[in-house]
Design a protein that fits this description.
By secondary structure, this protein is of the alpha+beta class. It has ten helices and 19 strands.
Length: 386
């Protein structure tokens, strides 16, 4: 038994288009479905969003409390750095914060060399990992993102962001507005360059980037009703345009979700015939089933119940199950229980069930037959006495 519960027709925003960027994408973080796009496979310089892969590999290979010795790094005046001193000893956790929040190029080099021994060896590992993750539009030439050979597409960037956020430490880091790092030579307070994390409560990551060749880039994530969405905007003309485009995408994404309760406690889902009786026993849901779905998804309930039930049955006894499916996939289930108690069938019930025809017809026939027999007996008695 299947019941369909399509989403109610409601006015919805149209997917964003004509955004101030060269390319973009919006993805459902749970299902991976593309919700909006503009040139999503366009490969272009990705600037410091390169550091997502650097952080991903470092978090996989190094321990958070492992101490790293900072190498010498000569930065040009316009580079973003954490301000590490050559030979300074600092924990991996703090380097990751400096990498992802302050976008420190010196932190990227320190982590890369701690993982692989050299920048070149680390870059080979970056490209191998990109291939393993299916990032076919992506290529790395350094762990920083300063070179124009670091290219990717919006599609690949959100895929990597989704993998990155599966790592608990990185998920915590990219959603942090500001933190003071204390394990190095001096305390350092770093502020997240992703303005949306600092200003929009439900935005929780992930990385900014800028070079003259790349323009302004932002990979962002947000969550409402427990449902994550990811966006990537590449080639925006300014930070303000980058942030506005990203927020428009994220707002559209979270607006698509709704709460639904396809199963409510006590709701009747089946009525099972009682053996030996011309009655049915209602089966009701033992508990609520609530979920969050996109408005374009189809929600179904599927019932499994016995064809017939014999007594006795206690009220609340589990006799079946109701399952909820979203777009054909099972997501939750609950027991179906007897809505009332039922006694065992009586001898009369069993006789009734054994006799052909309906109960009223059968009993009426028996009464008529008994009446005819009685009349015949009375007539016979009158003849003997007459």
């Amino acid at each position: 038994c299947v019941a369909l519960a399509p989403a109610p027709a409601a006015a919805q925003k149209r997917p964003p288009k004509d955004l101030p960027a060269a390319s973009w994408i919006l993805v459902d973080g749970r299902e991976g479905d593309v919700l909006a796009k503009g040139n999503p496979r366009r490969a272009a310089p990705m600037a410091s969003t390169t550091k997502m892969m650097t952080a991903y590999l470092a978090a996989k290979e190094l321990r958070p409390n492992q101490v790293v010795t900072a190498p010498r790094y000569r930065a040009n005046p316009v580079e973003s750095v954490l301000g590490l001193r050559p030979g300074e000893r600092i924990k991996v956790r703090d380097l990751l914060y400096g990498l992802m929040l302050a976008s420190g190029n010196d932190a990227a080099v320190a982590l890369a060399r701690a993982v692989a021994g050299s920048d070149a060896a680390f870059v080979r590992r970056m490209n191998t990992t990109a291939a393993a993750l299916g990032l076919t539009d992506t290529h790395y030439e350094d762990p920083i993102g300063i070179g124009e050979g670091n290219v990717s597409s919006p599609r690949d960037l959100v895929r990597l962001a989704a993998e990155l956020r599966k790592v608990p430490l990185l998920r915590e880091i990219v959603g942090t507005p500001e933190i003071t790092l204390r394990s190095g030579a001096v305390p350092r307070t770093v502020t997240n360059r992703n303005t949306l994390v600092r200003t929009v409560p439900w935005v929780d990551g992930v990385k900014t980037g800028y070079t003259a060749a790349a323009g302004n880039v932002l990979v962002a994530s947000g969550e409402r009703l427990g449902m994550p969405v990811f966006s990537a905007v590449m080639g925006a003309p300014s930070e303000a345009a980058r942030d506005a485009a990203s927020l428009e995408l994220l707002r559209y994404g979270v607006s698509l979700y709704r709460r639904q309760a396809p199963v409510r406690q006590g709701e009747r889902f089946a009525a099972v015939p009682l053996r030996f009786r011309d009655q049915k026993l209602p089966l009701v849901a033992a508990r609520d089933l609530r979920l969050v779905v996109r408005r374009d998804q189809e929600v179904e309930t599927r019932v499994r119940a016995p064809e017939e039930v014999d007594g006795p049955v206690e009220k609340g006894e589990m006799l079946g199950r109701v399952t909820v499916l979203v777009d054909g996939e099972r997501v939750a289930s609950a027991g179906l229980v007897a809505a009332r108690s039922v006694e065992a069938a009586t001898l009369v019930d069993r006789i009734d069930a054994a006799l052909p025809g309906g109960r009223i017809v059968v009993w009426a026939g028996l009464v008529v037959a008994a009446g005819l027999i009685l009349i015949a007996l009375l007539r016979a008695a009158r003849r003997r006495t007459g």
